[in-house]
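Q: Sequence in, structure out?
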Amino acid sequence: MTATRVLVLNSGSSSVKYQLLDMRDSSRLAVGLVERIGEETSRLKHTPLASGGEAREWTGPIADHDAALKAVSAELAKDGLGIDSPELAAIGHRVVHGGKQFTEPTVIDDAVLAEIERLIPVAPLHNPANLTGIRTAMGLRPDLPQVAVFDTAFHTTMPEAAARYAIDVETADRHRIRRYGFHGTSHAYVSRATAKLLGKAPEDVNVIVLHLGNGASASAVRGGRCVDTSMGLTPLEGLVMGTRSGDTDPAVIFHLARVGEMSIAEIDTLLNKKSGLIGLCGDNDMREIRRRIDEGDERAQLAFDIYIHRLKKYIGAYYAVLGRVDAIAFTAGVGENAAPVREAAVAGLEQLGLAVDAGLNAVRGDEPRLISPPGARVAVAVVPTDEELEIATQTYALVGENTVEATAE
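A: Exactly. Output:
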């Protein structure tokens, strides 16, 4: 039988998200999540989609990622989809930081592992967990291609003028300080899907992609290539996010250290985990913030206004970077579901050709759709992201041509 399946793994510090896809038609065969790894109350939720079966949940101690993946394999095996299946062509891994070196999906070997490890200082929360998942999967299927798909790869096409910070060049190069960007698999997928929605080829379309979730980022995509993005050395820069501050005067850090007598670790926690929407109003769920606004809550209103102000600034900036904009695409949890955010983000930008139709904006759905008025100069779209499909597609494109007929033993 031909190996056409790809298992996508997204390994966090205490979780593993996974999806098994059949690349003949990009269908999902199973999806699942293991969370609270290392605790007595670990939880595995598995949904077999191929058979139309009901979700199964299991709670109990899962000591580490090795145990987690073995538990995932056992659940998949119950549906005839085990990791040992000869129909599995590859395992695709989400890796957050690929630095400047990794510009495309890459088959993992010792050299690749070493480079991902060298990048830990610029991705201390993500790359170690990604490495753990990779090494565990390699131990379970050492015969199978393991592919790293990097969040940063899509943004490596940024020109130096966009990627460089205006600091001493030698210092920057020595410590790998530059703007890398993140959410790259989402920006790649959504920019192409937006072009398809417009009935055009990606190389003929300029798109501003707004990935708005608990983490949020914007990108300017010219002809299918990223030319600017809002996140930088780390995912802290850019838009206001659920718990991250986004753009902040760097001197705030010095001020907090000198006047506030805060340690670097305390400032790091403040800006990454206690800022953004949660720092402004105590909530990082846009649904709750909108509910509070409807009740007249002034702190929630201010948080929303700051969020929109920053978002609107990036729309204007990337409009200027691109020169011509064919579409703006909203995606991810907030972008796909929060109609008031979409409406507010383009309000007052009619001179730029931007507007939303109230009726179209209010419609909810799982398919890409236009929410701008008919005949609008710039299309405004809602495009659900699919990072797992993007990872699987890139993985299979890399190894699929080398996949040979596999015979079940």
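Confidence is low (pLDDT under 50) at residues 404-409.
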